[in-house]
Design a protein that fits this description.
It is a single chain. The protein has 4 helices and no strands. The protein has one domain: Helix Hairpins, CATH 1.10.287. With 107 residues, it is mostly helical. The radius of gyration is 18 Å and the shape is flat. Helix content is 65%, strand content 0%.
Length: 107
């Protein structure tokens, strides 16, 4: 699935099953919540915290939830994520082309 296809598929689901998009502000709050859930799993799996009884370690689900809400925000604000990601690569390639290779902390 391409990013464009994902944006189209989320849009179809929202307009049929989901009825309509939540407001941008609500989706921003949802995105923050989903990132927090992902952070909790990462802190427990890779950090110093342990899982509570009954708590799941489902990185895939949490990452997909973050991506879902990000796609919703992109759709409702008219952002083409494929184009935006390409521009981000171009910016990073220009700005950081020597920054990381010359960073002694990374070697």
């Amino acid at each position: 699935m391409t990013i464009k296809e994902a944006q189209e598929q989320v849009d179809r689901w929202i307009r049929t099953v989901g009825v309509r998009y939540f407001s941008e502000l609500t989706n921003m709050a949802c995105l923050t919540e989903e990132v927090g859930e992902l952070a909790r799993v990462i802190a427990r799996k890779y950090g110093d915290q342990s899982f509570k009884e009954g708590e799941n370690c489902n990185l895939e689900e949490e990452m997909a939830d973050v991506l879902w809400v990000l796609i919703c925000l992109a759709n409702q604000t008219g952002v083409d994520l494929t184009e935006a990601l390409q521009k981000s690569f171009e910016k990073k390639n220009q700005r950081d082309k020597e920054r990381h290779i010359n960073n002694p902390k990374l070697h």
